């Protein structure tokens, strides 16, 4: 097979290695696809993602760049534990076997990775630096432990992310999930909220949709923090609102089920306790909270309005989440749809305090949520909403009842998981010294790889040789932390580690970071548009602030350009093993070869769009490559007949026009489908040409060489075989990208469309810079066009250079 032949030659030539030699003066280019989870088998989504990245990397090498194109494995995580439970194999054994298998599959595709930089996040030499970073964050107060409400599954004995709770049950064991307060580890991403938000303006090479999703997730909002006194106590109920102009319309307060007021009220109220338990099992996904039935119960507690002094009842409501804000909200049903529906359901007061300029707003049937003019607001009556927000906030501040505040939707990053197959959190718990970070000289804390999870509690807790340890401060017996890191931790800094993959003295090498970072082109699915990308941006800034590299030289963002490729669909549905609608890349490669699989995935749709799988499309890609191979047999052939200099010149113009088009398609968002279409057109033009003299033979060969060279980033094995057939001096994937000869684009003659009364009546052949008078004369001399001018007087003539001659006539 040609794949084996050329991959061996590529390896021997070391063409995929990114060079660190300072004498190498080539510009650098860092191309990266989101690294895979080692599930064992590639699917067509993988193939598309990695072929896109490989085409970019190969194209840049051919343009003369020193390219870094690395690969690795996002190897920790729950899927490995699930597989271990199912197959009775330790997750490590399963993971390493899958890595071996997938490495072979990626190599079979001919992907130009620098395998000397391969990483696996489950290797101690990788995660030791993650542990080191965490201890430094603890020193700076950026990592901390506190009790937090989490989704808890009893049989799995673990915290679940919101996305792992489906219809109130665990995605793995179908057991109802409930809320639980648990000591968890957090990193203060909120300290970086402003910078994360402001730096979005720098990401000019990111899709607007992704930037918008990041901006919404961070969720900066301005308003006021308001304190409501709890009646009969010194306690206050603090809330944040973006609408202090509606403060005079508060008719009830709502708190989360886990709020201390609700928990205390339920101590002697069985019905309320049962309702709180019900709330603990509902989804906390925002989309679910927004659409579910709103339920609540009165706590029998009142709060005192900070301005009027009136009492308002406090309710517990299932739509208020303890994890957002203070776990309490002020409810203004006249001017908030959710509050309105809740008030109507439970017969609570609705007080209108905003109207429009005409004063004719009625809230008896629906809430009025727009800004307007204040009414029923005492001394604030008549103020417009904008002015009222400032005036009421100032009043609260001067009376000690509140203050202006900016709030973020973003919450600190919960990084601990009660799972086994993950990076051990480098912490020791000592009865005397408390929580102690593992000293740097004792890192890494190595995860025992022989343990077998069973689906319940993590086996780490029962591994005495792991858990039992001496306290590094006092030397007394202590216990290791048995929680492991969220796998987002590993994937948040791997792009920087690739620059220094073999460095054993630091997390990254500052010089290497300066040479390669940031990533010039990042490629991956839009499903990672929020969390992964947000955490990666955050971690990059942490590493900068830890002094691991110079932010002025490297930059404050890890990814310069982002391409989010679409999914691969079959009959309009995303390919999925669970749905049984997958296509195995192995079958395509064995039948047609790796390059056909590559060509189809790159041609079938623009990279950012979903790709509909088509067996006919695969066959079409194979036929095109066969046509090109046969086309090359014409190189050097001369056909009998008179030399046609005009046809030869036209072909050369076609060649360089298509070089220009293909290059433009590569440069503008890597529109490989457009580039391939242009190459198919060039192939057709070459196939239709017959060389009749030495000049024709030379131009045909020039076109064939350009076609093969431009195919090289997309179908590298095939292009190298073609290059060998054509006698290339170097292997095709390392040939210089063809340059456009501007002189070849100059046209001596063009076809100019002639319209009479706005309708096309023919075409004339003229020079590109023909004057209007000469163009008209040529039209009048044309036998077909002149018939439409007979008996008419020419009223107006308009020449659009290079495109159109429009003639306006009237009867003579």
Describe this entry's structure for a reader.
The chain has 28 helices and 34 strands. By secondary structure, it is an alpha+beta fold. 37% of the residues lie in helices and 20% in strands. Among the domains are: 133-188 and 413-485, Methionyl-trna Synthetase, domain 2 (Beta Complex); 220-408, Isoleucyl-tRNA Synthetase, domain 2 (Alpha-Beta Complex), CATH 3.90.740.10; 750-811, Ubiquitin-like (UB roll). The radius of gyration is 34 Å and the shape is globular. Helix 2 (44-62) links the parallel strand 1 (28-33) and strand 2. The mean pLDDT is 93. The strands form ten sheets. Strands 10, 11, 12, 13, 14, 15 and 18 form a seven-stranded mixed beta sheet that branches. A four-stranded parallel beta sheet has the order 2-1-26-27, with helices on one face. Strands 6-5-9-19 form a four-stranded antiparallel beta sheet. 41% of the residues are buried.
Describe the biggest sheet?
7 strands, mixed
Q: What is the name of the CATH superfamily of the domain at 220-408?
A: Valyl/Leucyl/Isoleucyl-tRNA synthetase, editing domain
Number of strands: 34
Radius of gyration: 34 Å
Structural classification: alpha+beta
Q: What is the approximate shape? A: globular
What is the helical fraction, as a range of percent? 25-40%
CATH class of the domain at 220-408: Alpha Beta
Percentage beta strand: 15-25%
Overall pLDDT:
93
Low-confidence stretches: none
The separation of the N and C termini measures: 75 Å
The appropriate CATH architecture of the domain at 220-408 is Alpha-Beta Complex
Q: What is the name of the CATH topology of the domain at 220-408?
A: Isoleucyl-tRNA Synthetase, domain 2
Counting DSSP H or I runs of 4 or more residues, the number of helices is: 28
């Amino acid at each position: 097979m040609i794949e084996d032949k050329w991959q061996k030659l590529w390896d021997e030539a070391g063409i995929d290695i990114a060079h660190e030699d300072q004498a190498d003066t080539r510009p650098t280019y860092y191309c990266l696809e989101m690294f895979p989870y080692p599930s064992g088998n590639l699917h067509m989504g993988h193939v598309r993602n990695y072929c896109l990245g490989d085409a970019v990397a190969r194209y840049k090498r051919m343009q003369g760049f020193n390219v870094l194109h690395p690969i690795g494995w996002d190897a920790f995580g729950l899927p490995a534990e699930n597989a271990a439970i199912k197959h009775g194999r330790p997750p490590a054994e399963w993971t390493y076997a899958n890595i071996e298998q997938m490495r072979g599959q990626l190599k079979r595709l001919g992907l130009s990775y620098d395998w000397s930089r391969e990483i696996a996040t489950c290797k101690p030499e990788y995660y030791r630096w993650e542990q080191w970073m965490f201890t430094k964050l603890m020193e700076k107060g950026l990592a901390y432990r506190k009790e937090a409400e989490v989704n808890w599954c009893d049989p799995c004995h673990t915290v679940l992310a919101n996305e792992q709770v489906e219809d109130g049950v665990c995605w793995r064991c179908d057991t109802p999930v409930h809320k639980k307060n648990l000591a968890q580890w957090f990193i203060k991403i909120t300290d970086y909220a402003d910078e994360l938000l402001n730096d979005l303006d720098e990401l000019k090479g990111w899709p607007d949709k992704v930037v918008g999703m990041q901006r919404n997730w961070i969720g900066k909002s301005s308003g006021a923090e308001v304190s409501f006194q709890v009646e009969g106590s010194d306690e206050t109920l603090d809330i944040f609102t973006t609408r202090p102009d509606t403060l005079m319309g508060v008719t009830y307060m709502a708190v989360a089920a886990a709020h201390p007021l609700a928990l205390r009220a339920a101590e002697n109220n069985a019905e309320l306790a049962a309702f709180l338990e019900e709330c603990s099992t509902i989804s906390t996904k925002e989309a679910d909270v927004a659409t579910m039935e709103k339920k609540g119960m009165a706590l029998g507690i009142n709060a005192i309005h900070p301005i009027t002094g009136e009492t308002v009842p406090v309710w517990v409501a299932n739509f208020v989440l303890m994890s957002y804000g203070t776990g309490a909200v002020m409810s203004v049903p006249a001017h908030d749809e959710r509050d309105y529906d809740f008030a109507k359901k439970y017969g609570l007061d609705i007080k209108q305090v905003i109207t429009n300029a005409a004063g004719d707003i009625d809230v008896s049937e629906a809430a009025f949520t727009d800004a307007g003019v204040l009414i029923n607001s005492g001394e604030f009556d008549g103020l417009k909403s904008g002015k009222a927000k400032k005036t009421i906030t100032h009043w609260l501040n001067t009376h000690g009842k509140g203050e202006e505040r900016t709030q973020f939707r973003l919450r600190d990053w919960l990084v601990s998981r009660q799972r086994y197959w993950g990076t051990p959190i480098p912490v020791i718990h000592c009865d005397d010294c408390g929580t102690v970070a593992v000293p740097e000289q004792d890192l890494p804390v190595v995860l025992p790889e022989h343990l077998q999870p069973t689906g319940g509690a993590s086996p780490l807790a029962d591994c005495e040789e792991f858990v039992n340890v001496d306290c590094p401060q006092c030397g007394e017996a202590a216990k290791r932390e048995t929680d492991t890191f969220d796998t987002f931790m590993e994937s948040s800094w791997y792009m920087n580690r690739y620059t220094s993959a073999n460095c054993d003295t630091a997390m990254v090498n500052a010089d290497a970071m300066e040479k390669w970072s940031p990533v010039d082109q990042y490629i991956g699915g839009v499903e990672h548009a929020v969390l992964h990308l947000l955490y990666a941006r955050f971690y990059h800034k942490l590493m900068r602030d830890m002094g691991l590299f110079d932010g002025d030289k490297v930059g404050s963002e890890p990814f310069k350009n982002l391409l989010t490729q679409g999914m691969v669909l079959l009959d309009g549905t995303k390919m999925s093993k669970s749905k049984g609608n997958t296509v195995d890349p192995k079958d395509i490669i064995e039948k047609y070869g790796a390059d056909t699989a590559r060509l189809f995935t790159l041609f079938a749709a623009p990279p950012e769009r979903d790709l509909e799988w088509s067996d006919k499309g695969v066959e079409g890609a194979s036929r095109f490559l066969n046509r090109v191979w046969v086309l090359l047999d014409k190189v050097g052939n001369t056909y009998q007949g008179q030399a046609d200099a005009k046809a030869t010149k036209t072909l050369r113009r076609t060649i360089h026009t298509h070089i220009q088009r293909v290059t433009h398609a590569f440069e503008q968002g890597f529109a490989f489908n457009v580039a391939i279409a242009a190459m198919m057109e060039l192939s057709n033009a070459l196939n239709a040409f017959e060389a009749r003299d030495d000049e024709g033979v030379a131009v045909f060969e020039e076109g064939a060489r350009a076609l093969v060279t431009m195919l090289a980033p997309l179908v590298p094995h095939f292009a190298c075989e073609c290059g060998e057939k054509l006698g290339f001096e170097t292997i095709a994937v390392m040939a210089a990208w063809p340059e456009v000869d501007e002189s070849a684009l100059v046209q001596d003659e063009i076809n100019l469309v002639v319209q009479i009364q706005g309708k096309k009546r023919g075409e004339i052949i003229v020079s590109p810079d023909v004057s209007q008078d000469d163009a008209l004369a040529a039209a009048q001399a044309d036998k077909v066009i002149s018939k439409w001018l007979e008996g008419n007087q020419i009223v107006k003539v308009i020449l659009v250079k290079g495109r159109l001659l429009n003639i306006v006539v009237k009867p003579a």
